[in-house]
Queue: 2 jobs
Job 1
Amino acid sequence: MKKVVAMMLVLVLLAATLVACAKPADPTQTQTEQTGDVKPGAGAKKLGIILSGTKDDYGFNLNFVQLGELVEKELGIEVVIKENVPTTSDSEGVMEELIAQGCTILFPSQFGFLEYSHNVALRHPEVAFYSLPITDYAGGNFSIIHGEVQDVWYLNGVLAAMYSTTDKIGFIGSLPIPDVIVAIDAFALGAQSIKPEIDITAVFTGSWADTGLQTTSVNQLIDSGCDVIAPFQDSIKTMMEICRSRGVHCFGCNSDAYELDPQTWLSACITDWSGYIPYLKQAIDGEYEPVNISGGMELNLIKQATFGDTVSDEIVAKLGEVREQLINKEIAVFEGPIYAQDGSVMFEDGYRPTIEEINVIDQLVQGVKGSMN
C-alpha cells in the first residue's frame, strides 16, 4: 500500500512539473523581466540599419549611411544596410534576416518601423534596438535617442536671412505635420531675428520625395523672387540641381550633402551621430542600459552640416555666437511672445514651451506666407 501511495505522489509531482513547464509566459510580464540577465548587443560584430528608401537620396536615408560609416570607423564593427524596406509588417522579416546574419544591434531608421521593430525586439532580448522617434516603447532592449531640431533650423534661418540679397526665402515642406511645421517656424523665427520684415513663403508638396512636385515648387518660389530655398524633404538632389541652374542657393535636409554641389549648398540640420557612439559602445562592451533621451546640440545629437563654399566668415562667426546662446539657454527659439499667422497667441510673452509642447505645434508663425491646406 505504501508503495502505491508513493508511486501516486511521484506521478502527481511529475504532472505538476509538466504543467509548470508548459505554462505560457505571463502576458503582463515586462520587457525588462523577459530580458533577464541578457545584455543586448554584448560583443556585437555587426550593426544593421533599415532604410525605407535608397542610400543615395542625399537626404534622410543618406543620413543613416553616414551613421554606418562612423560606426565602422569608431567602433570597428561591420554595418549591414537594407534599402527600400516597406514600412509595413514585412519589415519584421527584414529585421529577422539581419539578426540571422549576426546583427545584434539594429537601427530602424524611421517612425514607420517603430511598431514592427518593437515586436521584433520583444522576440530577441539579445539584440539592442535604437530608435529616433519619441515613443512609450523605451525599456528592456529598446532605446530611444531623439534629436530636437528646432535650434538648428533656427540657425539655418539666421544663415538664410544674412545670405539672401532679395530678402525673399522659400521653404518647401512635405506634409503639414508637427515635425515639418516646427522646422518651418524655427527657420522663420531665426530669419526674422536678423531681418524682422523678411519675406518667407512656405509650400507643401504633400509628398516626401516626389521630384515632379519638387520641381514645380522650386521654380515657382524662384520665379517669385526667392534666392534661398530650404526644403524639408527626404531627397534634395532635384531641388539642388534646379537651384544651381537658376543661380540661387539651397539648404539640405537630414544629411550632409555638401559634396553634391559646394557652391549651391548652404548647410542643413542633421543628426550628430557622434553623440550616439558612446551608447553603442556601451552595448558592445556588455554594459547596455536602456535609454530614453531627447536633446539637441547641447547633447551632441543635432548639428548644422558643413557650410557651403560661398558662406562668408562673417556669417559663420554670427552663427557661432547664436549657437552658443542657444546651447547656454540665453535665448530659446519659441520663447514668447510667439504669434500664429492669424495673429493669435501661440506662446505668451516670456514663456518658454516644453519640448512636449513644441513637438505638437500645428500652426505657422506670423510672417510666414502660405497655407497648410
Job 2
Amino acid sequence: MKRRRRQRQRMLVLLGAVVLLAVVLIVIISSCSKKNQGAGITAQAFSTGSELTLPVNAELNSGDYVSYGGYQFETGTKLSKMAKLITKNNENVTATSYDNAYGSAYLFTRDTGSGVESWCLYQKDPAHISKWYIFMGNHREVELADGTLDLLLPLHLISDSYLRDNMGSKLSLGTAYACGTKSADQTMLEQFKEFYANSGLYNMITLETGFILTDKATGREVEFSFEENDESSWFTLKSTIPEEPEPSSRVQLSSTDAVSTDEPTELSEADALTLSKILIDANYKTGTTASEYPYKASLNGTDYMLELTWKDDTWSASVQSGDQTARLTTKQACTVAAILASNGVMKVESDESSWPDEAGTVSPMGACMVTTNDVNVRSLPSTNGNILMTMLESSAVAVCGQTENDWYQIVYNDKFAYMSAQYLKAAE
C-alpha cells in the first residue's frame, strides 16, 4: 500500500511539472506574439530617430514601427493619463495638449540644442472608435517632381481625418487639408511657421499667405499656402518647380482691338494643337519686341499676345507671354498668319467680283508651305486672275484654304490671294 501511495505521489508531481511547463510555454509564446507588451510602446522622432516610450501594455504590429516610426494600438488608458506617463518616464520631454474639430492630441517635444524633436499621441477616429490610439513621430510623405519628400508635419494641428487616421497616408499637391486649434492665440500660419522654425530641419522663406520650406538634408522644396477664417483653416501644398506648359487642344483667338465686339474664336483641335505648340516652343527672352499686339491666344489659362508683320514678301511675327517675348521663325510666322486668316480673326481683304465657276468653295486650312518654283500670286483661283506678285522659289507661304479646282488660298499683306497647288509643298 505504501509503495502504491508513493507511486501515486510521484505521478502527481510529474503531472504538476508537465502542467507548469505547459503554462510557461504558453506565457512565452504569448509574450512573443505581443511585441513590447511589457516594455511599453515606443515612437521614433522624425529625422533624429530618438525614441519615446509609453509604458502601457498593448499588442503591437512590428511592421508599423519599421514603416512609420510608431504604432497604432488599443488600450483602456485615458489620453491624459498616457501623456503623464510619457513625461514621467522620459527625460526632458514636455507635453502640450491641443484640441480641434478632429479631437484631442498631445504634442511631446524635446530640445536637442540644434532643434526640437517631436512626437504625437492622439485617439484614432474619436467620433466612431473608442480605445484606439496612434503614437508616432510627426511626419508624412509627399511626392514632388524631383522625388519623394518625407516631411515633418504637425499632426497635432491637423484636423483632416485622412491624414490623422492613416499612419501611411501621403500628402498630395494641390489638395486642401483641414487644420486648426481651439482658442488659439496664433493663426494657423503662425503656428506652422513656429513649428518648422523650431525643428531646425528646414530653411524657410515667408510669403504673404504661407511659406516655402527647403529641406536642409535633401534640398527639396515645397510651398505651404493657408486659407483661414474664424471657424476653419486649410493648408495646401504646392510645388516650387514651374510646370512645363503643354500643347492644348483648346485655344481661343481674339482681337485686342478695344472697339472690337467679336467673341473669341474657338479653334479646331488640329489648329489649336499646331498653334499652341508654336507658342510654347518659342525662344523666349525677357523684354519687349513689339509696341502693339493685335491678337491674343488663350490656352491652359495663359494668354499669348501676337504681332504679325508683312515684310520683304513674307510674314514675321513676335509673341509675348508675361514679361517674356520671342521672335518666331518665318515658318512659324506663316503658320500663325494662316491660322488667324482661316479662322476669320485676321481682317483680310479679298477680290471675289469675278469668282470663277470652276473654283467652287474654299475649304479652310492653316499651314505653312513653300514654293517649288517661282510662282505667280493671283487675285483669283484661276490663270485669269490678276498677277499681284511673284513668289520666288523656296519662299514660305501662309496657306489658309484650298479651292475645289486645286488652288491654294493664301494670305499676304492682309489680303487673300491664290497660288496653283502644283507649285507648293509642305514646309519641312
